[in-house]
Amino acid sequence: MSGAAVAVAAVGAVFVFSGLESPLRGPCALLLLLGAPAGALALALRELEPLGRAVAAAAGALAVDLLVAQAMLALHIWSVRGGCAAVLAVSLLILVTARARRPRRPHSARSRTR
Questions:
Q1: What sections of the chain are H helices per DSSP?
Q2: What does each C-alpha distance from 62 to 24, 32, 109, 113 come to in angstroms?
Q3: Rounded distance between C-alpha atoms, residue 26 and residue 16, angstroms
Q4: Residue 63: is its pLDDT beyond 90?
Q5: Domain segments of the chain as ranges
Q6: FRET partner for 22 with CA separation of 20 to 30 A, picked from 50, 69, 98, 105?
Q7: Hey, what's the torsion of the CAs at 98, 47, 30, 22, to 10 degrees?
């Protein structure tokens, strides 16, 4: 199921960044705008229980989208491509920060005896 959502979001990215016109452009782009930050936040919030993580990731995704839109509108630089690129950049930043913050697992006893 999550693989299908990633595929639809990727199609949305292709539609948005290539400028292709299609009736599916809007729904696919919406899934991209909600799915990218939600996925990054869900990975960053691994210590929460699944339901709490899903709710927090969805709320955080909406917050990221609204903050990006507000900032771009305030600076008079709004565009669909720019908005999607900014949301993807923020999502990537969240993902990289979460991966860097995660402590590394110590080697197992088997790997130390070799």
A1: 2-18, 25-44, 50-74, 80-101, 109-113
A2: 21, 12, 44, 49
A3: 9
A4: yes
A5: 2-100
A6: 69
A7: 80
